[in-house]
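To close the section, here is one more complete example, presented without commentary so you can practise reading it yourself. The ligand is flavin-adenine dinucleotide.
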Amino acid sequence: MQPSYDVVIIGGGVIGSSVAYHLSAHPDFTGRVAVVERDPTYAASSSSLSTSAIRQQFATPANIRMSAYSIDFLRRVPELLGVEGHDADIGLREPGYLILGTPDAIPAFEARNATQRACGVHAELLAPAEMRRRHPWLRVDDLGIGSYGPEKEGWFDGPALLQAFRRKARAQGVEYVAGTVTGLEMVGAGRVGAVLLADGARLPAGAVVNAAGPWSGQVGRMAGLDVPVVPLKRCVFVFDSPERIPHAPFIFDTSGFIFRPEGHLYICGTTPTAENAHDDFGLEVDHALFDDTIWPALAHRIPGFERLRMLRAWAGLYEHNLFDHSAIIGWHPDVGNLMLACGFSGHGMMHAPAAGAGASELILYREARSVDLAPFAFERIAANQPIPEHVY
Ligand SMILES: Cc1cc2nc3c(=O)[nH]c(=O)nc-3n(C[C@H](O)[C@H](O)[C@H](O)COP(=O)(O)OP(=O)(O)OC[C@H]3O[C@@H](n4cnc5c(N)ncnc54)[C@H](O)[C@@H]3O)c2cc1C
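Output:
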């Protein structure tokens, strides 16, 4: 006879594993949890292919709160996620984010800064000359403004965070099941009764969490639901440069490229000129993107990078929420025991701690207590109330 579970989580990436960890760590939870993950190597999972940066500089209080909760958690990972014999070291570094703006962008930067300050984020607005003084390697003559977050912003080892959540969750009794979910057995229209796997296994479940990352739309369809999450390919390029760039923060350029140091190397990426189709889960690297778009923009902004050497590249998938590019977290209004934890659209690594904490409380109490998840509810889609987050 198949075991039955209080909660079955579909997808064992950083989000599913954070939910599993938080639920199993909670003193009020005594149930049985399974995480179904089809690829325990996580080769194509977003959590393996992420650049894993965290910032506080969002435009909406909802996302700022998620970041504030999460950075506090990330700082405490060694203490919270260590398992006997295994340190939980995620290599968190906090050199800050520097977001660059053209002269036209000054009013928008000032408005976002006011929101951030009201939420306790003390990002500094910098004039071009001040940016040049701090970073003599930066070209500023076409800039109007920069926004620099001096604390709680930086990057970490994303796969290490995923493994730390997973290891700790297992140590707390969560079962990881290697298998592919192929169907959801419905009890009438309004509840999921069991999760069905490709090998014929049937996992009866009290509640089910859709944390399938870029595949969350597919899992939604198994319950007859339209979950507007699709894969959005993003390429990452690693390069070396004879010209060293000391003390660089994470940079968002006006052209759209992102850049940050990685050890003694550098990594970068950008928004591609053409996006992949919504059913294309391919991971081929677009090398022309680096040669034609990123490198010229990088060499313009940081002239020392004219002689850089690209070393390697990879592609990964954002779990892109077509509606408003923000996470969907909460119970589905039509299938009362199906929780969505997906659509993070490029923010899932940084917001995994807050999402996991809040989702586990929704399961326990039907309300999130650690962090306000109400703005991320699925209901905002039917109500046509997008989260007005600024998308870089
Ligand atoms: C290039 C790149 C850069 C990024 N940079 C950042 C960043 O700087 N900061 C940040 O916060 N975020 C960033 N992100 C986004 C972040 O990585 C994701 O939001 C996050 O990893 C999503 O985690 P997840 O657990 O939802 O998805 P995943 O890690 O993809 O996990 C979902 C899992 O579900 C499994 N699955 C799917 N379907 C099934 C099924 N039917 N049966 C069983 N298992 C299934 C998959 O195998 C997968 O392991 C980036 C992403 C990419 C690709």
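Once you have examined the tokens, check your reading against these statements. The chain has a mean pLDDT of 96. The chain has two domains: 5-85+157-228+323-382, 97-152+233-316.
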